[in-house]
Amino acid sequence: MDLKVYPEADEYSERVIPVAETILNWLAFYSSILLFLFYFWKERWLTYPFYETEGVQVTVFLIVVVIMIVTFASRIVKTFNRHIMPYIYEQFDIDVGLSFTINRLIYYIVMFLALALSFTTVGLDLTALGVVFSVLGIGIGFGVRNIAANFVSGIIILFERPMEVGEMVEIDKKIGRITRIKLRSTVVETLKDGTLIVPNQYFIEQIVKNRSSAELFARVEVSVAYGSDTAKVEELLDEAAEREMSAMKGVPIDQKPDVQFIGFRNSALDFQVEVHVVNVEMKERLESRIRHAIARSFFEHGIELAKAAPPAAE
Question: Could you say which architecture CATH assigns to the domain 216-301?
Fold first, then answer.
């Protein structure tokens, strides 16, 4: 007799089994800590106050309790965001960028509450603690103003969402995909330049090109000597681009290259070649091939490149 496999059962097992395994790991971890406290409860070093301030006696036991509260809150919120929230996002058709923002806000709120609860548990006055942090903030404010600016910029990015996780951006002529937005920095994965850790303040103060919805082009600029036949140069550029487009696999052939005469300089005439491509890797490979083709074509037809301007005299 054949057993039927229901998709609902597979989806249910995929959601429930990881959560159950995580809970069992928690039980093992925190049970060992509780067993440790129970076993050494009568030992004097566990409850001996090695520091005292404003009537609060800090002991090893209180430190262990604080660590348990903070780590438990961190574990539970990460598990909730990883296994429960995706199901909610799926039901309400929430996109990846907004879901990432919600997850980060949930995490920060829960951790703030966990820290407040841990301080209260050990007997620290949160009002006095706030005064201490205020005084420290005034003293070190000038030293950490960049960190504070990045922190505020991160909050602005999470709320205003000028860019989201998964989008393609261009930073200093490097194109990459945003993989993570943190409060201080944003992680951008590029194809060849590795991982970029970009301070959030950069996205607020600088012009950043969002390439997700824009068409991607292989773009080559070339400058020829003043007096060259501009019509001939444009013809050669067009031929070189078309030849490399047809020779390279995967390049859309339904669109023609766009060749433009873009400007004059003192001793140079500037041209630009643009070809539509589908990804960053194709863009870089095609740009290199077009440059090789242009160099060969110019040499064969006697077209001279513009000479670099001499450095200014001091």
Answer: 2-Layer Sandwich (3.30)
- pTM assigned to the model: 0.45
Amino acid at 177: R
CB 83 within 8 A of CB 73: no
List pLDDT tens digits, range 110-158. 888 888 887 776 666 656 455 445 544 554 455 556 666 777 777 777 7
Cα–Cα distances in angstroms (integers) from residue 79 to residues 10, 15, 26, 68, 93, in the given order: 20, 11, 11, 16, 21
Long-range contacts at 81-87 (CB < 8 A, ≥ 24 apart) = 81/106, 81/107, 83/15, 83/18, 83/19, 83/22, 84/19, 87/15
Q: What is the topology classification, in CATH, of domain 162-210?
A: SH3 type barrels. (2.30.30)
Give the start-to-end residue ranges of the domains of the chain.
Answer: 7-140, 162-210, 216-301
